[in-house]
């Protein structure tokens, strides 16, 4: 997957959604997803980076759901 394949959706979200909580959650999710690529290569570090990215994904989904429910 290329970097643009991930950032394209982030840019679209930032254009369409003004809510700062949703934007911050999306930024964190993308940042932690990229951090998996920078993991040291040990199984433990990669697993930790994956868990952090999954938690950020869940936080993004929660923030987006709150935003959509309020609309």
- Largest β sheet strand count, sense and barrel closure: none
Average pLDDT for all residues? 89
- Topology as a string of helices (H) and strands (E): HHH
Radius of gyration: 13 Å
Portion of residues within helices = over 70%
The total number of structural domains is 1
Please indicate the percent range of residues in DSSP E strands (runs of 2 or more). Answer: under 5%
Shape: flat
Specify the structural class: mainly alpha
Low-confidence stretches: none
Number of strands: 0
Distance between the termini: 33 Å
Number of helices: 3
Secondary structure layout:
Elements: H1 3-16, H2 20-37, H3 43-70
Helix pairs in contact: 1-2, 2-3
Describe what you observe in this structure.
The structure is a single chain. The protein is mostly helical and 71 residues long. It has one domain (3-70). Helices cover 85% and strands 0% of the residues. The chain has helices at residues 3-16, 20-37, 43-70. The termini are far apart.
């Amino acid at each position: 997957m290329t970097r643009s394949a991930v950032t394209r959706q982030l840019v679209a979200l930032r254009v369409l959604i003004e809510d700062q909580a949703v934007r911050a959650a999306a930024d964190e999710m993308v940042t932690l997803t990229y951090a998996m690529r920078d993991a040291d290569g040990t199984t433990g570090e990669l697993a930790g980076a994956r868990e952090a990215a999954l938690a950020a994904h869940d936080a993004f989904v929660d923030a987006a759901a709150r935003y959509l429910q309020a609309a």
